[in-house]
Design goal:
The complex is a heterodimer of chains A (about 80) and B (about 200). By secondary structure, chain A is mainly alpha-helical. Chain A contains four helices and no strands. The radius of gyration of chain A is 23 Å and the shape is elongated. Classes of the chains: A mainly alpha (about 80), B mainly alpha (about 200).
């Protein structure tokens, strides 16, 4: 029977679908009975969603860089 | 706009298409460069990669996605730069500002001693609406090792598959999984700390 600490150790692999069938079933069986670990996994998923939606830092020299690259491309075409 | 449409406009030399290209992919390229050469040289590698990309655009055969192609050019240039002083893969864990989910959280029987507490906000939008939390998360990301933060961003923000990350960075998939797990737990600890205390 999986313990909470082991579940936490497997949690990322569980979210990334990296577990064997046997491990996956063990995780699901544990989650079915343990609200603390259910909460943990839910919050870890929320952590992922937050990272996904965090605004990226704007690119300072975007226009300048785009113009330089377009020019470099034209030059390379000779 | 699809890769194909973008490519057509790039080949026509439209400035706006280059703007779109940089905006769409520079973050991922930077994360790859950062993981391989570190912060000091990442910007130079990205710049070299862009030049290599625009010079060979006409020859891009679309066997892979534009993103995969851009990232492999970036990874190759970064590795060339490192050829003579290849870094070891550092799995060493730097401490996060709010810790992690470590053994102190569990009792001798490996059950929770300090279980996760309920959070006030349960959507990413609600959490990110707090300026202070956003800054706090940035601080945690900066505290991660270069490799760890790159792996986290490539997975969570750029949605790359684990084997793709492993291939680009030339590290084992097992190492990618370890780096990712440790990074996630530190970010989790920051969110938890903020939800409990209301401050960073």
């Amino acid at each position: 029977m999986l313990k909470c600490r082991q579940l936490v150790a497997l949690s990322s692999d569980y979210l990334d679908a990296q577990l064997s069938l046997r491990q996956r079933l063990a995780v699901r069986a544990h989650l079915a009975m343990c609200w603390k670990c259910r909460r943990f996994v839910r919050q870890l998923q929320l952590t992922q969603a937050v990272l996904r939606q965090m605004p990226e830092a704007p690119i300072d020299d975007l226009d300048e860089r785009a113009r330089a690259l377009a020019a470099a491309h034209r030059d390379s075409q000779g | 706009m699809s890769d194909q449409q973008l490519l057509r406009r790039l080949l026509a030399g439209e400035d706006a298409a280059y703007r779109e290209l940089v905006q769409r992919y520079q973050g991922a390229m930077r994360a790859v460069a950062f993981a391989i050469v570190g912060s000091r040289h990442a910007e130079e590698v990205v710049q070299d990669a862009w030049l290599a990309v625009v010079r060979s655009l006409a020859g891009f055969e679309q066997r892979a996605s534009l993103k995969t192609w851009l990232l492999s050019i970036t990874a190759n240039l970064a590795r060339t730069r490192l050829k003579h002083n290849r870094r070891e893969v550092l799995l060493d864990d730097l401490p996060g500002p709010h810790g992690s989910v470590d053994e102190a959280r569990f009792d001798a029987g490996d059950h929770w001693r300090q279980p996760p507490t309920a959070w006030h906000d349960d959507s990413p939008e609600a959490l990110l609406a707090e300026d202070e939390l956003r800054q706090c998360l940035e601080r945690t990301l900066v505290s991660l090792s270069e490799l760890q933060s790159s792996v986290l961003l490539l997975r969570e923000r750029q949605m790359l598959e684990l084997d793709e990350i492993a291939g680009l960075l030339e590290i084992s998939q097992a190492n990618v999984r370890v780096l990712l797990h440790r990074a996630r737990l530190k970010v989790f600890a920051t969110l938890e700390h903020f939800e409990e205390t209301g401050q960073c």
